[in-house]
Design a protein that fits this description.
alpha/beta; Transcription Regulator spoIIAA; two-stranded parallel sheet; 13 helices; 6 strands
Length: about 325
């Protein structure tokens, strides 16, 4: 894990606000609450933000290390909602994806938040994860129900009511990860699981949002594509496709026309399970993590066996070798 220094982050944050004029600052990363001097960083930015009437907020937090000290820093600004990312609805599936999070961790953090005056919580999940079953999908609704119960138990002010938002996205396998061999589930199956969850999300005060499937499908195609997609991307652009990350500009039809003109099948990239010995298009790029380690993690997924945090124990992924340090693998 790479961490920038606290001092450097303060400098970047101040420059960004002064140059942009925004009224909200979000400390965003893949796992913000894993940044050890996070409380100190919030302290350093507090006065600067207060003077400029800028709200300091955090994105999705790890529920297992959410602290009251961090909450108190956030409460000095507006009490915006808190966001947690359990990712999966059952412990089995969370273990399979190595989330290293229990439902009790999540509920304990929600109780602390509700007791501290928060009345809005967002929960992020993914649909279509490897080994996911309908039981895992329905588990998402159960988690939302348990969070609602935690509010009833712990809220310091029940007069304000509660807003619980559940959001799901379509799982996209990525290169250089343990799931680079996995297919994305077909669109029809993703939409069936969305429907199943929507019909069973019966808890009052819970809102369910789901991500647009077309953009996630094309993301799965491109994220594990090869050099032949260069022609597809250029063809789509010549047809008028641009700013595709914005739904108002994205057109799946244009992309599919581009694939057809180039003689390529997008399902070959998105929905095909890769074999262990298949030569990946990105194999010439070294991320520091070995293919053998990724495959080992891939196999552990199917056994629902977790891997400990590498900051306390080297798991032998190979990255230490880049720094000239010993690697237990």
């Amino acid at each position: 894990m790479r961490n920038r220094s606290e001092k450097l982050l303060v400098e970047y944050a101040k420059e960004a606000i002064e140059d942009s004029g925004y009224e909200e600052m979000t400390l965003s990363s893949l796992s913000t609450s894993d940044f050890r001097p996070l409380v100190e960083l919030c302290d350093d930015l507090e006065e600067f933000c207060a003077q400029r009437h800028v709200n300091l907020s955090l994105p999705s937090l790890r529920a297992d290390n959410f602290s009251m000290a961090l909450m108190e820093r956030l409460q000095k600004g507006r009490k915006t909602g808190l966001t947690f990312a359990p990712e999966a609805g059952t412990q089995r599936l969370r273990d399979a994806i190595n989330k290293n999070l229990t439902e009790e961790d999540l509920l304990a953090s929600c109780r602390r938040a509700f007791a501290g005056g928060y009345s809005a919580v967002k929960l992020y999940f993914m649909l279509g994860l490897p080994t996911e079953t309908d039981e895992d999908v329905l588990g998402i609704a159960e988690v939302a129900s348990h969070v609602m119960h935690a509010w009833r138990e712990s809220a310091s002010n029940k007069n304000r009511g509660v807003r619980i938002t559940v959001s799901t996205s379509w799982f996209v396998p990525k290169a250089h990860t343990a799931f680079q061999w996995e297919p994305q589930i077909p669109k029809e199956e993703y939409e069936r699981r969305v429907k199943l969850l929507r019909e069973n999300m019966l808890t009052k005060s819970v809102t369910y949002n789901w991500h647009d499937s077309d953009t996630s499908y094309m993301e799965a195609v491109i994220s594990r594509g090869d050099r032949r997609l260069c022609r597809v991307i250029e063809t789509a652009w010549r047809k008028g496709e641009h700013l595709s990350a914005w739904e108002e500009y994205f057109s799946l039809d244009r992309w599919l026309e581009a694939f057809e003109e180039c003689g390529l099948d997008p399902h070959f990239y998105a929905n095909r399970k890769r074999e262990k010995d298949e030569l990946m298009p990105w194999a010439m790029i070294s991320s520091g993590v070995t293919e053998q380690y990724l495959w080992r993690e891939h196999e552990r997924c199917y056994q629902s066996v977790t891997t400990p945090d590498c900051r306390t124990h080297c798991n032998g992924c190979g990255a230490n070798l880049l720094l000239g340090r010993p690697c237990d693998g």
